[in-house]
Every structure is written in structure tokens, then in C-alpha cells.
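fwd from M.: "can u put these together and see what the complex looks like"

so here's what she sent:
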Amino acid sequence: MDLAIKLSPATEDQKKLLAKVEKEAGTSVNLCYQCGKCTAGCPAAFAMDYPPRQVIRLLQLGLIERALQAESIWICASCETCSARCPRGVDIASLMDAMRRQALQQGKADKRVAAFNKAFLFNIRNFGRAYEAGLLLQYNLTTGQPFKDMELGLPMMMRGKVGILPETIKARNEVKKIFERAEKLGGAE
Amino acid sequence: MKFAYYPGCSADGSGIEYGMSMERTAKILGFELQELEDWNCCGATSGHNTDKLLSLALPARNLAIAEKTGMSMMTPCAACYSRHRHAEHAIQHDPEMKKKIEQVLEMELQGTSETVSILDILANKIGADAIAAKVTNPLTTMKAACYYGCLLVRPVEHTGFDDAEDPQSMDKVMKALGADAIEWSHKTECCGAAMVTSRPDVGNPMLYRVLKDAKESGAECIVTACPLCMLNLDMRQTGIEKRFKEKFNMPIYYVTELLALACGDDPKMVGIEKHFVEAGKYLQTVKIRAAEAKAAAEKAAAEAAAKAKEKAEAVARAKAAGKTADKPKEEAAAAEPDQKKIEAFKTALTKNPDKMAAKLVDDPARAEILATTLDEKRIAKLAQLMASDMEKAKKAADAFVTAELKKQGDCQD
């Protein structure tokens, strides 16, 4: 982690991008007075390159690209502790969420997390419901670790915790259309 | 009480015991669950990580169906609960977003739905007393760490049925079932959630810390109301033990499983044998300890009763002996147990002199004189007499008043 940062005034593009992220998150980074309560309570901060407080600081300084490249946003588990405790009411968890979506759009997502999310949504899009067994298999295959958690597969099956086939709903087409229309409308924003 | 029921995708998969025990819980407590027709997945974390509008529209379709039933929608899964509460919040407070959601769904939303969690229903809508009344096999001596995790109590503005830092709803339920809900610091810490699968380097230490704090705080089991917390704590526990070289052997239960068991269900009825960490043995241990505790309590009660009986018999014997032989002994035996009575009368005379004086002296004017002239000496005398012989006490009280009147008369002369 490079602690020395050379500052220059934020460009129009940076400002625009930050405004977009803030709007989506429904919160403002300028409320933050850098007390560090978010980092203190974050259960995943130990693994982050920039802990939550520093991510907010990057945004305050207009360094949004650096924030979007931070590993932190993919380490955040969305536990919401930071938002619940922020004395200034900054919704940090929602910001992390908005930044993940932004990074995903820019093709900067953490490969493993993105693969997991893709596999998860693929199931819903096609069956209307999540299919846990298919999800894990698909995730393992796309991330090139076919034997991950294999020791858990058989016990899961023996306990009747894995369906052989995905469960499907009647309104599958309706759900598929929700995906399509959300993509269209979301993109227009 | 009737609810639209949203089981969530895990209820007949990895969280099958949750689904089974939820249905049992409803039956036992007498509320009805009507499964939401043709519900779809809420999108969970993957949804809100990917597309905000999609992450609100997926649960909103379920809310639209729930609205039409006119019932509140109950979902056992913490993540499903959170996503539906998020969508509800957007529909009710963000008109712009509501419009977009309606466009995506091609449906109009009234915004009248209300998603509730099982903890809210158990602790607040049914209540600990009503639950305790159904308990037939109390979980006495069970040491349980009530684990709420993240999404049942956060974000505060979307949940709000319990305290975000030190929630109590599950603790109340567990106490109603007879268990000890231990104090610990990780009741709302994150278990690592999907990170345990996608980023085990991050998720595993988080999971480890929850197990470790429970153990160090004296818990013998962890109770959860979230299928993902269960999956991580239960299925991944052996892996965590290996990685961190520490044995936990910590059985994990759904709160609904324990409720059903405490109300007389057989462990098989709620799927206890499907757990990864052996969970049946500890229930047996609790059963044996509870029986021992019950037997010990009964023995203590019986001993106390026997002692009291013995004492009463001794008093009766002393009385009978006193009648024929020496009187002072009888007085001593009779006066002894009256000490408490005497104290009680003393307190009453000190605190409520008017009331007590009226009891002792019939004439109100004379009673008032008594009440205003009671000093320590007179109170002691009267209390002693009242405890043994009310008539004597009345006479003494009357004598006090006469003496007082005489004294006042003397002064006037």
C-alpha cells in the first residue's frame, strides 16, 4: 500500500463518477470526519489494503479510481456494522456496494467474487430460484478449482441437503424479463 | 395469527432443518403459514453486488404477491428478510425508485407489504410467556450463545425490531425454553457470509473468531436464526478446527429446532441428525442434566418440607407438654415464633399510626389521640400484645388514651 498520495484537483470526470456512486449509495462522503469508527468495528479490515475509513478518504480527495481498484471493496462482507455505527450517518456499506457495481461495470471486479455472483444470478435468471449445488459446481469450474469443498458434497447429499435438479418456478419467463428490463433501465441511468 | 410464508431457497436445501422446524414451530405455537405462491429468489448478496435495480425488483415481485394476500410476510432466512425489507423501504420512501421497480415488474405496487422475521414474531408478537406455557421438556442447564449475525439487526432503519448492538429477542426465547443465554461479545459479528466460499482467506478468520468467542464465553452450543450462519458455523466447523488447530465440537441449532424440541418434538422431526457437527449428543446431555437438576430441586423442596413439618410437630409437642406442666415454657415456645409478627406490627404502627390506632380504639377521637401520641415504648408494648392477644392490646391502647387524656387534663388545670 502506497501511503504517500500526490494530490491534484479532482477532474470533472472524477467528480461526475463520485456523484454517481454517491447517488446510488444514497449517502455523501463529505459528511465523514475521519474518526475511524468504521474501521475499528469492521470484521474484515484485517485483510483490507485500504480499511473503510481510508476508502472514504480516497473518495473525499477525488481519488475514485484508486478506491475502485482497492481490494477492500471485494473483501467487504456487507455486514453493515460500519453504517450502523457511523456517528455522521455515512452509509459506508451502501457506498461499498455501489463501488462494487461500478468496478464490475468497468471490468475491475475481483474475479472470484464476480464468478460467484455470476453463477448465483445465472440460476435465478433461468430457474427463478437459487440452486445451491449447481451454483457451487459452476463456481468451482469457472474459477478453475474443481475440487474445492469436494469433501462437503457427498455429506450434503446424504443429508438430503442438495437437490439433484434445480427447483424451478412457474413464472420463469417473468423473472427472466425482470433481469432484461432491469439491465436496460439500469444502464440508462 | 396467519402469515404469508417465504421459505427462501435454502429451506429445502442446505437449510432443510430450518424449513422443517419452522413448520413445527408454527404448529406448536398455533400460527398459520401460507406459502407465497410461485415466489422467486430475492437475489441475495449477488444481486445487490451486481445491479441495484435488479436487487430491489426481484424481492419486489414477491412483495407484490404478498400485498395481494393482505397478510404480513414472514421469512425465516436473515438474508431474504434483509432484501425484502430493503425493497419495502425503497418502495415506501423513494418514489423515483418505486416507479422504476414498477416498470421492471410491469406491475403496480401499493407499498402495503410488511416483511417480518421469525425472531420478531416469537419474541414480540407471540411473547416469551406464551412460548413458556407450551414447554414440556425445558432445556434447563443448556448454555446457549444466541447468535444474531448481521442482517436481522442491521441496517437499523430496515430492521428495527431489536437492538443493533445487544439484541435480546432470541435470548428471551431461549430463556422461555429454560436455557441459559450466555453473555458474549460476538452476537452480532459477521460469520464471514459468502466470503467463506469466495474468499476463504478473509471469511475463515471471521468464522473462527465467532466460534472462539462463544467457546471462551462458556457457551456449549450456538443458536442461530440464519441459514447461512448455520451453513458456515456447522458445515465449515471441522475445516476451521483443522486450519486453526483448535477443537470446538460446538453444536449449532436453529432457534426453531430448539423450540420444537422443548415443546416435546422428537429430534428427528426437526432434522437434528442432518447437522454436520454432531448435535444429538449434547441434547441428551442437557436432558440428563435437566433431569438431575429437577431431581435435586425436588429433593431440596422435600427436605425443606420435612424440616418445616418437624418444627411444627416440635412446637405442638412443646405446647401439649406446657399445658400439663410448666407454663413459662409454653409462653417461651409460643412467644418465639411470634417475633416476626411483632416486628410486622411495629412497622405497621410506625408507618400507619392512624390506621392501626383505628383498629385498636373504636372511638375515632380517642383513636386520633392514640395515633398522635405513639412513641417507641408504646409501639413496642402494643406490637407485642397484638401479636399474642388482640383483646389485651385493645385494653392497653385504651389505657394509653385514658392516661394521655388525664395528662392533658392535668396540664389544663
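replying to her w this: Chain A has two domains: 12-105, 111-188.
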